[in-house]
Amino acid sequence: MKGFGFIQRDDGQPDAFVHISAVERAGMISLNEGDRLEFELEVDRRGKYAAVNLNPQQ
Question: How far apart are CA 7 and CA 57, in angstroms?
């Protein structure tokens, strides 16, 4: 496990970076391809989007 990855956004905008710490704060162990999530976006100091406050969806 790398400790980070990217989430494809439904709105067609660029993928959002996600760090394992955001996954763990949401009470999850990992993310798998195809998992559905609600999340908020933060812009980091480089202007890239990061997913935070993850909420798994069924």
Answer: 14
- Can you give the pLDDT of all 58 residues of the chain as single tens digits? 578 999 999 999 989 999 999 999 999 999 999 999 999 999 988 888 999 999 998 7
Can you give the pTM of this predicted structure?
0.82
Percent helix, strand, coil in the chain (nearest 5)?
A: 10, 45, 45
CATH 2.40.50 fits 4-57, yes or no: yes
Between vectors from CA 5 to CA 11 and to CA 50, what angle results, nearest 5°? 55
